[in-house]
């Protein structure tokens, strides 16, 4: 039954792709994709705790039989990627044109099919094909929506960086295949003697290749432009199913294809931790300064991916120093972290589309949307924002707590390099958590609260329900974590030889392998919290009998000002941090004046502020100039002169004959 549902999911996505191309309406394709996601969620819920055997697909790619298998970690990440994808497909894009919606659905089908292949295909060649299909599908989604006028440049920039990463993945797989003589993933597993400089090279290539899609430095700079060129529904897919697939591919390569001993493997682990933590710091700092819902959430996705990559590096480091228990704990924490991130980020991207339907803009500003719309919409958005800000009792708080507890296990290591690396990583992630709290306080407070609409805003019941249900899923993941985490036992056992999830709970308590080390209980907190809240509520009700509530205007220097005119803006909220960390942001401020009737009467002030990209001017811009110069040199090949083309053909014939005659 579960395997039949997976087959039905694939068929529905494939038929939806064809329907989006050939049918005049988008409804059949949208319904088919949503039903496929529902089938996938249902089948994975039935398959999650157990093991799934490898299945032969009955054909070969590059003389290698194609096998398919969804292991325990893949099913976990796929499940929590498909849940928000179901709602995104059902609600559709904010693009108004029917043809745009159909093109977006075609790209969505390609992305989902490619991601499913990344999760389950078991050989190098078919995996690379699925990886490319997933990337191409994402580009089709952005281009098909036509949400932004200048979407071509960001999309090409995204594809260029992803292709550079794909080349890194290709080289890594070629080196591994040449070493082992196998192109199947099972055959790429290292032997006990494998620990050479090649380990470092392959590890860096894997981090470089998969990091391009995860937003590791310097690749995160394609995130805001590409996400900002699409709708929130596209962001749901990118930050959920695609990001989870990329992380799973990286974790499989690092934990299954690299040896778990030797100084070279330790070097890979330390570099991964450093890259992940630094990427998380830079991206959350950049997210805090953004004034667009999609761009802010995109950089937050890169930040969460950076945290996961850093903890994955810690898992490899623990394995190298001979601590399988903490290694398994750190890897499971990565999966928990990305599961909560997928749900919360999907909720807020759908919230962003709701803001757009009301304001016709994704700009973060005080509109008072929550004062005049459904309370369910606000509750779902609040739960998601709390989770991404790591506030209890949401799933983000649970995963961040587990992250720090995993790193603290490194203090028990006898290796100085491991202790120092993990201590610095914990300090860096503490800064990340602090800035993330301010970032989502800004997003929710400035983006959804304040004065604005004086009449009720009619968000669709489907959108309000989707945001509310996903928000409840964020809370449900945290409350049910003592039971959810047990489903990852088989994967922990197969990778590290220990069943870490069984030591990560003590009845209703969550513990990091030992209850004597630390503990929390979001399950008990969600029960005790409302009961404790009755105390201040009681004081408030009693005080209302003696003191009358009085509403007065906001103080503005003794003058009566319109609350909308003096409302907090995104720039005002984040300007202090921008000034303090000016060495990171490199902020610029431009003020222009337009005059009327002479130089003494100012008609209009035009203020513009920007944050300078870190890698763009010094890395990507020189590369673009180099490519353009090379293109100018090679443009002679398009001269149109027949004699020149005949000369080229003649030289090729001579070259071929020379190779055939003299090559032995």
TrEMBL record:
The keyword Repeat does not apply. It comes from Acidicapsa dinghuensis. Its main location: membrane. Residues 123-418 form the NADH:quinone oxidoreductase/Mrp antiporter transmembrane domain. Keywords: Cell membrane, Membrane, Oxidoreductase, Transmembrane, Transmembrane helix. Signal peptide: none annotated. It is found in: Cell membrane; Membrane. This is Proton-conducting transporter membrane subunit. InterPro entries: ComplexI-like_HydComp, NADH_UbQ_OxRdtase, ND/Mrp_TM. Coiled coil: none annotated. It is a multi-pass membrane protein. The chain crosses the membrane at residues 6-24, 31-53, 73-91, 103-121, 127-144, 156-177, 197-220, 232-252, 264-285, 305-322, 328-352, 373-391, 416-441, 462-485, 517-542, 605-624, 644-663.
